[in-house]
Amino acid sequence: GQDFSYDYIVTNALNDLRKETPQTKNSKLLNQIAHDSNLKAIGIFPNSICFSFYNSRTKTIDKLLELDILETVIRLPPGIIQHTNITPIIIVINKMKERPGFVHFIDAIDCHDIHKNRKRLNIDQLFRLLKDDEDKVHQAYASNISIIENNYNLTPNIYTQELISIPEGFH
After folding, report:
1. What angle do CA 137, 79, 87 make, to 5 degrees?
2. Are strands 70-75 and 88-94 parallel, antiparallel or unpaired?
3. Among candidates 72, 69, 89, 59, which has minimal Cα distance to 152?
4. Which of 18, 77, 94, 129 suits a disulfide with 40, CB 3.0-4.6 Å?
């Protein structure tokens, strides 16, 4: 089974964004975690952490890839955090990861229920997805090089979607 214990758990990243700009706050958190030795950390961030709009964020992701400690990126359903429609992203950093040179992407956007007109994360469905290594629809491994070639984009569905080739002459 998978080990779900961590040295760091960043739980207030979404709430603290009011105090600092998202790119500054997230980069500080990830940089602090990246420079500790032999650790495993998990954090929840807004989906803006996945895009390369901000120079400080790109440098942070580049450092995580260079150190080869970015283990997993999980996209959760939007609207599961009360009073916001932000799509949460879980990032797992592990200095002893199982597949060096690769990042595990999981698109858990469908792991929710509707209860009283509100989305709620379905934990059982999420854990089944995390344990199912054979699920090629919601999971994929991408090399650090391919992430860099994709402008450091960490959006899981980019890597989990099946690419469709368009034959010559059908553009």
Report:
1. 55
2. antiparallel
3. 59
4. 94
What letter represents residue 134's amino acid? E
- Rounded to 5, what percent of the chain is helix, strand, coil? 30, 25, 45
Distance CA 102, CA 100 (A): 6
What is the total residue count of the chain? 171
Angle of CA points 129, 133, 138, to nearest 5° = 50
User: CA angle, 147 as apex, 78 and 109 as ends, to 5°?
Assistant: 20
Q: How far is CA 85 from CA 24, 67, 130, in A?
A: 21, 33, 23
Cα(first)–Cα(last) distance of the chain, in Å? 46
58-105: per-residue pLDDT in tens?
677 888 888 899 999 999 999 888 788 889 999 898 888 889 999 999
Quote the DSSP letter at residue 68: T
SS3 129: helix
Tokens of 129: 């997805």
